[in-house]
Backbone:
């Protein structure tokens, strides 16, 4: 049992997407359209999330706009009392659809970008015309009076453009910019040797971000998600396992984080069969790494144990084969140096070929 309440719901409405980004956080084994939850079930999930205490819902994917019932889903979330944020590639977002979504209760739009150079951005997105669509959609969002966040995923191919990306977000009228270095899960880990930047390039980009934060204070909020492979201490993944966020996958599986299904030995309950509140409170999977009792040394007893909550379980598994070990991001982990050497080797790789995301793997 737990007295914890989630503050947010990440609703992965679909894995379908017109883009093929090689760093997509979706799993390699994507959920097909026929397996997706229907409108009625999502409506119930939104109401149950609000009853649990969630304040906001991130309507994500894949690309949520491919759902024909997207306006109905936005309205259901709005009527449940949740702050609604659409996380979108913006491909397919039109003036008419945006007006309909706003009327349904949409309050915030997050648009992902692949860079500032149109040709290179389209190449990374694996979709011709994507960059143009994003630029036009951002203008529509601002004109519609909705809050706009620009999410720029940073990797070796665009890290030199960080300053230009900041200028782009400011020029678009965004209120928030996420400078988010690739986190190596899902498709990104399959493309790590093509995506990993050099440490010195990351440090240079970090300096640009910090300078821009000071210069644009009060105008543009800039969040900086640093690459774990170059960090010394882990982040509290999703605010801690089963502590702040609940993820519902397109097929209805309730997860503590979007990559949790990669972990062996865990059975995830499905909202088709159980109420969200029961899953959050009693699910064995949610309790597995919740709190601090599960932690090994040096996490056990560490002064940061209730700050980073042990870091990322999926990353620990991906790098060590053991989801219950110390996240190698931590400088105290016996695997930290191995992870740093791995990053250095990947950054020096001349592999420029991407494995693009697509249904079918």
Residues:
């Amino acid at each position: 049992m737990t007295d914890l309440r989630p503050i947010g719901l990440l609703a992965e409405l679909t894995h379908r997407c017109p883009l093929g980004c090689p760093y997509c956080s979706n799993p390699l084994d994507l959920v097909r359209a026929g397996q997706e939850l229907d409108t009625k079930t999502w409506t119930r999930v939104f109401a149950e999330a609000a009853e649990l205490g969630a304040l906001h819902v991130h309507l994500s994917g894949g690309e949520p706009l491919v759902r024909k019932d997207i306006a109905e889903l936005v309205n259901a979330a709005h009527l449940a009392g949740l702050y609604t944020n659409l996380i979108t590639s913006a491909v397919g977002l039109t003036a008419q659809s945006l007006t309909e979504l706003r009327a349904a209760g949409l309050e915030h739009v997050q648009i992902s970008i692949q860079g500032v150079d149109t040709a290179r951005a389209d190449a990374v997105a694996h979709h011709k015309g994507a960059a143009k669509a994003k630029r036009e959609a951002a203008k529509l969002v601002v004109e519609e009076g909705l809050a706009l966040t620009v999410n720029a995923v940073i990797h070796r191919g665009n890290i030199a453009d960080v300053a230009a990306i900041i200028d782009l977000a400011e020029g678009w009228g965004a209120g928030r910019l996420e400078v988010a270095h690739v986190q190596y899960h899902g498709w990104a880990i399959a493309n790590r040797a093509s995506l990993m930047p050099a440490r010195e390039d990351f440090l240079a980009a970090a300096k640009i971000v910090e300078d821009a934060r000071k210069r644009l204070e009060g105008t543009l909020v800039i969040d900086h998600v640093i690459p774990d492979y170059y960090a010394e201490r882990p982040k509290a993944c999703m605010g801690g396992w089963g502590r702040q966020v609940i993820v519902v996958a397109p097929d209805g599986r309730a997860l503590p984080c979007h990559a949790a299904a990669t972990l062996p030995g865990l059975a995830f309950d499905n909202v088709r069969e159980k109420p969200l509140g029961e899953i959050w409170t009693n699910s064995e999977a949610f309790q597995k790494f919740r709190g601090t009792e599960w932690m090994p040394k040096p996490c056990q007893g560490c002064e940061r144990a209730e700050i980073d909550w042990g870091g990322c379980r999926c990353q620990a598994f991906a790098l060590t084969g053991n989801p219950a070990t110390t996240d190698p991001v931590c400088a105290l982990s016996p695997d930290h140096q191995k992870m740093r050497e791995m990053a250095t080797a990947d950054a020096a790789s001349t592999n420029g070929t991407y494995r693009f995301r697509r249904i079918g793997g």
